[in-house]
Amino acid sequence: MSVSRAAIINLSSRVGSIDDNTSGVCYSYRCSKVAMNMMNKNLSLELAPDNILTVLLHPGYVRTDMSGPQGLIDAPESVEGMMNVMATRTKEHNGYFYDFKGKLIPW
Questions:
Q1: Phi/psi zone of residue 43: left (φ > 0), alpha (ψ -120 to 50 degrees), beta?
Q2: Are residues 93 and 53 in contact, defined by beta-carbon separation less than 8 angstroms?
Q3: Global model pTM greater than 0.85
Q4: Which residues contact 81 (CB under 8 A, 6 or more apart)?
Q5: Which H or E element spans position 32?
Q6: Beta carbons within 10 angstroms of residue 11's beta carbon
Q7: E strand or H helix at 41, and its extent?
Q8: CA-based angle 33:75:78, to the nearest 5?
Q9: pLDDT, tens digit, for every residue of 71-107?
Q10: Sequence-separated (6 or more) residues with CB below 8 Å from residue 48
């Protein structure tokens, strides 16, 4: 992957999507992600004139100490996917939220 422009990539979580909330619970975790998502949106507007890209990425439900065996993917798959997504983002993607496969996540 080459660097062709400045970018801020924030790792978020699908649970920070208000539109995608179908289960409630996890208030503190959800609220912290929503706050970061809003910060990223603000940065995307403020930094666009300087040609700085800001994007949110959801790494997927990764098997970790936090998720345990319920996770759906391993860390290497998540990282590879996020690297591919980052390599293909352009100004049209500025301020948006994507999963590790490049699918747009609704807010």
A1: alpha
A2: yes
A3: yes
A4: 60, 99, 100, 101, 102
A5: helix 27-47
A6: 13
A7: helix 27-47
A8: 65
A9: 899 999 999 999 999 999 999 999 999 999 999 999 8
A10: 91, 94
Structure tokens at 57: 């990425």
Length, in residues, of the chain: 107
State the amino acid at position 53 in one-letter form: L
4-38 per-position pLDDT tens digit:
789 999 999 988 888 877 888 889 999 999 999 99
Q: Which amino acid appears at position 9 of this protein?
A: I
Separation of alpha carbons 103 and 88, rounded Å: 12
Per-residue 3-state assignment (H helix, E strand, C coil) for 54-95 = EEEEECCCECCCCCHHHCCECHHHHHHHHHHHHHHCCHHHCC
